[in-house]
Amino acid sequence: MSCIRDRVEIYNASCESVKRTILIALKRKYSTYRYVDTALTSENVIKTLIKPYIWTLLLSTSLTIVIEPDVKGCKVTAQTKSQDFIGGDIFNFYNRYLNRLFGDINDNLQKNGPEIA
Fold first, then answer.
1. Which of 41, 25, 53, 30 is nearest to 110 (CA)?
2. What is the pTM of this model?
3. For 65-77, what is each residue's pLDDT tens digit?
4. Which of 15, 36, 82, 106 has a CA between 20 and 30 Å from the CA of residue 24?
5. Element (H, E) at 64
6. Cα dist. 93→69, 72, 82, 97 in Å?
7. How far apart, in whole angstroms, are the C-alpha atoms of residue 87 and residue 90?
8. 59 φ/ψ angles, rounded to the nearest 5 degrees
9. How far is CA 101 from CA 33, 61, 64, 77, 85, in A?
């Protein structure tokens, strides 16, 4: 049984601009983790692994991001998924991963402009 968390945000920006912003965010390295093996698996899907630094025994978490057009601009759906034998998230790691990712996306779009489609 895996621990899965989802989050959806809609941006008033072109999907291409949002995708570039997401790829920039995924290059960041934090004090406790980094993103590794990031790949565009299709035109609108990005997959990566969240790899902790501190506890080498702590396993990586998969992150899948789907980018799709929406009437308001661009819809981004992100999902974290733990290893199969991790059934819970007592430290709230997975929601914090998503909060930081979407915070970085918001910051980058505000800083660089949304490039409205």
1. 25
2. 0.88
3. 999 999 999 999 9
4. 82
5. strand 61-70
6. 29, 30, 10, 6
7. 10
8. -80, 160
9. 12, 14, 12, 11, 24
Residue 92 to residue 33: CA distance in whole angstroms: 14
The mean pLDDT value for 23-38 works out to: 90
Question: Shortest CA distance to 41 belongs to which of 65, 9, 17?
Answer: 65
CA distance 91 to 52: 14
Sheet (strand 33-42) strand order: 4-11, 73-81, 61-70, 45-52, 33-42
DSSP helix, strand, coil percent of the chain (3-state; round to 5): 25, 40, 35
Task: Give the pair of three-digit tokens for residue 16.
Answer: 């291409």
Report in angstroms the alpha-carbon separations of 76 from 31, 52, 67, 68, 73: 25, 24, 5, 7, 10
101, containing H or E segment:
helix 93-112
The three-state (H, E, C) secondary structure of 44-61, written as one string: CEEEEEEEECCCCCCCCE
